[in-house]
């Protein structure tokens, strides 16, 4: 009886994302519209995004990532790598940026979780040569490591998909694929990654293991955006929610618990992976952590905000 029980537990997929590790699921790929694991079974990653590395570098380390896995119950962490902000980024300080990124990647590997390498830039098309250098460097260093996923362009704004964003992604895909033939590459869609109809109408062809970003903030985006998501899924476009918030689209405002639950239902029903914004102690609604939270206390119960509590409860159930 005991043996049967143990086997049953080992074979099932836990709703606690913390238990659905890289050693269990291994190399990911895309099958139809679904993210699947090494056995070809559907897998749904649930996790946390770090805040822009230039502004919250205190969470770009092993202690923090340990907390993301064990206390936030996440199986993916997103490193939001600033390209060019008023306070710097990869364009001005590439070594410092890579040091922070590598700390997060190496911690994620040690902790047996996935890690999303995000070029966090709203104007990535104007920094293409830097982006190519960045993705070439990282994909060379971590070639063949199953933990890694790439996100080439966080949130294009008004740039044209057909003329600007799609050609940008194609250039970055080519660069990554020269070093890394298999890992998932996720492509930002226009209008802060809510304009998913645009890539659906003109997708990138001739590539495997490509997905497209849909971002939502529950206080701003509701059934209309879910319906659009359902339509593009039905049309065959694989979706990954690389960023979502429980609050308004500006990252602030009250937690919209009811709308967030409707989003979770939709994500779970469609097995769509999703990553919450953000591991941050900035005083704003989207932050998962209360002000002055240390890396060692990431997602410990007493340090979670209202948003953080909602997200962590979902990650483990
Ligand atoms: C990118 O292009 C700019 C403008 O030509 C140049 O100054 C810069 O050195 C280039 N950077 C890289 C990483 O290629």
UniProtKB/TrEMBL annotation:
Domain Glycoside hydrolase family: residue ranges: 36-282
Pfam (any one): Cellulase
Domain of life: Eukaryota
GO molecular function, one term: hydrolase activity, hydrolyzing O-glycosyl compounds
Keywords from the named record: Glycosidase, Hydrolase
PROSITE patterns: GLYCOSYL_HYDROL_F5
A GO biological process held by the record: polysaccharide catabolic process
Similarity comment: family membership: Belongs to the glycosyl hydrolase 5 (cellulase A) family.
The name this protein goes by in its record: Cellulase 5
């Amino acid at each position: 009886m005991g043996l049967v029980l143990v086997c049953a537990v080992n074979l099932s997929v836990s709703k606690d994302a913390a238990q659905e590790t890289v050693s269990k699921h291994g190399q990911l790929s895309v099958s139809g519209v679904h993210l699947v694991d090494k056995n070809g079974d559907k897998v749904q990653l649930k996790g946390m995004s770090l805040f822009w590395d230039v502004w919250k570098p205190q969470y770009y380390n092993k202690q923090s990532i340990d907390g993301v896995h064990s206390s936030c119950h996440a199986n993916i962490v997103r490193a939001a790598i600033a390209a060019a902000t008023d306070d710097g980024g990869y364009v001005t300080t590439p070594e410092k940026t890579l040091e922070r990124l590598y700390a997060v990647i190496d911690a994620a590997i040690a902790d047996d979780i996935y890690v999303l390498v995000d070029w966090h830039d709203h104007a990535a098309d104007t920094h293409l040569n830097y982006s190519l250098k960045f993705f070439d460097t990282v994909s060379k260093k971590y070639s063949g490591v199953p933990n890694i996923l790439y996100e080439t362009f966080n949130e294009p704004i008004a740039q044209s998909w057909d003329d600007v964003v799609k050609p940008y992604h194609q250039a970055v895909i080519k660069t990554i694929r020269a070093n890394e033939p298999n890992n998932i590459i996720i492509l930002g869609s226009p209008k802060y990654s809510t304009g998913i109809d645009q890539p659906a109408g003109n997708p990138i062809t001739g590539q495997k293991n490509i997905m497209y970003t849909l971002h939502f903030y529950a206080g701003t985006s509701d059934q209309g955006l879910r319906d659009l998501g359902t339509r593009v899924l039905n049309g065959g476009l694989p979706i990954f929610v690389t960023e979502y918030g429980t609050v308004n689209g500006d990252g602030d405002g009250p937690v919209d618990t009811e709308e967030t639950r409707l989003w979770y239902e939709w994500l779970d029903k469609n097995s769509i992976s999703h990553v919450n914004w953000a591991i941050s102690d900035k005083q704003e609604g989207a932050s998962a952590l209360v002000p002055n939270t240390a890396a060692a206390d990431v997602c410990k119960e007493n340090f979670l905000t209202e948003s953080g509590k909602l997200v962590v409860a979902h990650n483990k159930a």
